[in-house]
Amino acid sequence: MDQLPRDLAAALCIVQHMAATKTPYLVDILSRSTQLEVRWAEQGEPLDRGKAYVSPPDTHLLFAENHLALSRAARENHARPSINKLFRSAAATHGSRVIAVLLTGMMDDGVAGLRAVREAGGYVIVQDPKTAAFDELPRRAIEAMTPDQTLRLDEVGGALIELAGSSVAAAPIPAALSLEAMLDAGGPATPSALDQLGTQTPISCPDCAGPTWQVGDAHARQFRCYLGHVNSARELLARADQQIETALWYAVRALHDRAVTLETLAADALRLGQDQSAEAYAQRSREAREHSELARRFMFDRLQRS
Q1: 106-165 pLDDT, tens digit each
Q2: What pLDDT score does 306 carry?
Q3: What is 239-261 written as a DSSP string?
Q4: What would the mean pLDDT of 240-251 be, rounded to a whole number?
Q5: b or e along 219-229 (b: 16 or more beta carbons within 10 Å of the residue's beta carbon)?
Q6: I need a labelling partner for 257 at 20 to 30 A (CA). Which of 33, 69, 171, 275 fits?
Q7: pTM (predicted TM-score)
């Protein structure tokens, strides 16, 4: 951003994943490295050239025609703000005038949004993964599509200056993209609306346990529920792994508690002279401890392979 002039012929909108409870220093940090006016985005604020608008923590940054909109709607890929939501909203409202830039990061939030920008005629820039502090996100983007440019971080500013001053032809906005952007903004996600985007699946939403609809293709497949949660296939897999680990810990604890309870019953039976019952309880306790250890080993082995 230190390359961008004060009179840049474009407005910048910035989303960075951050913890909702984290003290927001991003505006201060960026302000020290650019001539642009950097500010936290506000609801209803008009877009002005030469300004950079940063999404506040725990808030989606969206577009509504020529002004900004903030939303506390459902998370996407367990993130709020969501890069995908910003890109989809920009593509649906500004079409071919959008320049989407995806930089260093993890997982794949932003990949589906880049494809939406491309479908609406916009321009896509992805940071060269070899130069990224975290290469997973730009690498996933390049796997899903061919960007218009793949650049080092120090090359992005020059590209934005050149592109911001160029004229582009208008392109039609796909109906599905407009519908998704409307849902992202909090529109009613009825089953019939979701049926227009994709097909219902047997997979439950990891955020609300509701039904999901499969949207997109193999390059950027997503699962959307009627409450508005959206997750990529990779995010679903990661969340399933977390749920499995939690379930296994519950199983280990339950089996341990069972073993201890059976040992108590065995000791009581011995004190009462009920030798047969004591041995039966003791045997069941040993089995519970064996099962607990098996569950623990299975979990650790699975974690090492994942």
Answers
A1: 999 999 999 999 999 999 999 999 999 999 999 999 999 999 999 999 999 999 999 998
A2: 66
A3: HHHHHHHHHHHHHHHHHHHHHHH
A4: 92
A5: ebbbbbbbebb
A6: 275
A7: 0.87
Give the separation between CA 210 and CA 287, rounded to whole angstroms: 37
CA distances, 148 to each of 61, 88, 139 (Å): 24, 18, 15
How many alpha carbons lie under 13 Å from residue 218 in its C-beta half-sphere? Answer: 1
Tens of pLDDT, residues 174-233: 999 999 999 999 877 889 999 999 999 999 999 999 999 999 998 899 999 999 999 999
Listed in sequence order, the residues at least 6 apart from 279 whose beta carbon sits closer than 8 Å to its beta carbon are 266
Instruction: Check: CB of residue 34 under 8 Å from CB of residue 4.
Output: yes
Q: Where are the domains of the chain?
A: 12-164, 190-228, 236-305
Evaluate the omega torsion of the peptide bond into residue 172 and state whether it is cis, within 30 degrees of 0.
no
Cα–Cα distance list, 33 to 4, 82, 100, 278 (Å): 10, 24, 21, 74
Under a CB-based contact definition with an 8 Å cutoff, are residues 52 and 37 in contact? Answer: yes
Length of the chain: 306
CATH of 12-164, one of 3.40.50.180, 3.90.700.10, 3.10.20.740, 3.40.50.1000: 3.40.50.180
